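Build the 3D complex.
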Amino acid sequence: MTTQASAFSLAVPSVPTPFRRHRNPLVVRARVEPSDKSVEIMRKFSEQYARKSGTYFCVDKGVTSVVIKGLADHKDSLGAPLCPCRHYDDKAAEAAQGFWNCPCVPMRERKECHCMLFLTPDNDFAGDEQTITLDEIKEATASM
Amino acid sequence: MAVSVSTSTAISSLSSERYTRLPPSASSSVKQPSLQFPSRTRLLRISTPRAPTSPERQFLPRVQAKKQTFNSFDDLLANSEKPVLVDFYATWCGPCQFMVPILNEVSTRLKDKIQVVKIDTEKYPSIADKYRIAALPTFIMFKDGEPYDRFEGALTADQLIERIEAGLKVEQ
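Done.
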């Protein structure tokens, strides 16, 4: 996986100036990122649902962050937070069908979350937190 | 968490630069609809470890990648002298990202025994479909182009090595 960013300057000259690379650097992320709004929605949902289900976030909050962004990304593109840890033949059909929309049926029925987002206390990877801040998410996924 | 590992330094992967459909005759002898592949697929193989050079990769010696060109995933599998561990992943899959540094460690520790390859299932859905990938991450061990072991989910480096070596023993 690589981060892709390109920098170029914005120049609005009254006098023609040569293209200056570093004058007003504008960093553009080539990778598609989920919208801030969706990330916030899924973050709140995750905290709420962890409390409600008595589950905890992973000791490595990076995992939690990536999954929350994955859910937000699907919410943006499909209208529903389809599980980001699966491969699908037809994502739109799956989102409409609903089995894998978070919280998915295996989670609702058996508290099974293979995304490692909601972990039962006995799970080796479970931490002791049911909260995660937007800053934590941004930091953990900054280098993606 | 280290998610910024570039594929060029540690692990082989198919990079999707230019995306062109291979003519049916160019693909391997498998009788299936032709797989879509970039016209030039660059795959990077591990050869020897080097000293760390960048701050975010402090955990392991940086591995020098050897570039090779393959025409398809099938080619890669067929031409590999060693068994191949294939990691099917997706960008926003938490456990898949969790496995990135672990796979680096495992491929360094087992560098003479296996080759590690990562497939982005969103870039190569046809490969993922061919092997009926559902949950991510899914790991499949291949020998001589054929899968012989398959497991899902994140695991620690020791658990992964244990599983790989158990599979290698059986294969011999």
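The CA atoms of residues 51 and 61 of chain B lie 5 Å apart.
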